[in-house]
Inverse folding.
């Protein structure tokens, strides 16, 4: 089976840094994705890691360790608008790139 | 900025009725997907479509479901005889390719309510 685990909820304050962890055990691996989803809206792409290491993209960074089946999303200088669910997803198949999603981490940013 | 568009945004249907959810993927994309998200649950893969055929489908995608690309722009999901448990948000997505170019763009979704 496919297993992707991430914390259900996290809270943080504006201006702070937060790290959202994701562990996975899947039958295949063609990259790890992070998506942001505001309530009632579509997931929007944040980052993609296929090799080990850190990918930085403005206030957002994502890290991958394939040997540990582990990733994290780091959000810096938190803003109120960052309150959303953050979805960790694994791309399973090279041919189809179907994504298997975790349940998502709901982040609430307080002033 | 190019985007995936879905219609309708909301659909209410009676149990047993057929529904067709429509999507217009981004024009130069080659891979198309349907996902669903039951309220409060995770996003689940339904089906992927490439080169005018299904490339992969999940266990959820049974004989009641079908997909079609009737012309060069639309991508549809049909549910033949809806059940109460089909109530969910259905997302269409498309990507340019696979590998490093495989960022999937999601549409805004169609909220399907089966009564």
């Amino acid at each position: 089976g496919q297993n992707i685990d991430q914390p259900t909820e996290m809270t943080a304050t504006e201006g702070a840094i937060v790290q959202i962890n994701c562990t996975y055990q899947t039958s295949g691996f063609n990259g790890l994705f992070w998506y942001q989803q505001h309530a009632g809206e579509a997931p929007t792409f944040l980052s993609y890691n296929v090799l080990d290491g850190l990918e930085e993209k403005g206030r957002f960074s994502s890290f991958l360790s394939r040997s540990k089946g582990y990733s994290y999303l780091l959000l810096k200088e938190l803003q109120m608008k960052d309150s959303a669910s953050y979805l960790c997803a694994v791309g399973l198949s090279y041919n189809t790139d179907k994504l298997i999603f975790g349940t998502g981490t709901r982040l609430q940013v307080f002033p | 900025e190019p985007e995936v568009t879905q219609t309708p945004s909301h659909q209410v249907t009676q149990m047993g009725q057929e529904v067709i959810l429509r999507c217009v993927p981004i024009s130069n994309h080659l891979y198309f997907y349907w996902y669903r998200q039951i309220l409060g649950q995770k996003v689940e893969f339904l089906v992927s479509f490439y080169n005018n055929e299904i490339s992969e489908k999940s266990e959820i995608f049974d004989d009641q479901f079908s997909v079609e690309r009737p012309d060069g722009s639309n991508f549809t999901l049909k549910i033949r005889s809806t059940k109460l448990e089909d109530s969910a948000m259905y997302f269409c997505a498309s990507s340019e390719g696979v590998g490093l170019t495989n960022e999937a763009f999601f549409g805004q979704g169609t909220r399907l309510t089966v009564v």
Remarks:
- Chain B has a mean pLDDT of 92.
